[in-house]
Prior knowledge:
Layout: E1 8-11, E2 22-24, E3 27-29, E4 34-39, E5 42-47, H1 51-59, E6 65-68, E7 73-80, E8 83-92
Antiparallel strand pairs: 1-8, 2-6, 3-4, 4-5, 6-7, 7-8
Amino acid sequence: MVQQSHFLAHFKPDDEALTDSVAVLPIVDICCGTVEFCVAGTWEKHHCLEADILIRCLVNSVRPVRWSQQDAQLIVTIAQRGSPKGQQIRFFLAD
Length: 95
């Protein structure tokens, strides 16, 4: 189980909330605390204050990672006992 901190916000498992997001394949530099991914042919680079926790969530993800441009959040879904949809965790990214 991933511990929640003040930089993470647990997200309701609601597929409707993902309509404003796109699937991405993030590249995480844990030493620099950066995350890079491609959106519509353009590479984006953001800072993540908890890159180590993001890595642990990515290892346990059960669905494609989503990027919400509007909220500047990376959404990772990890397995959760008793929930077929899993648990969605949002990582707030900064420019």
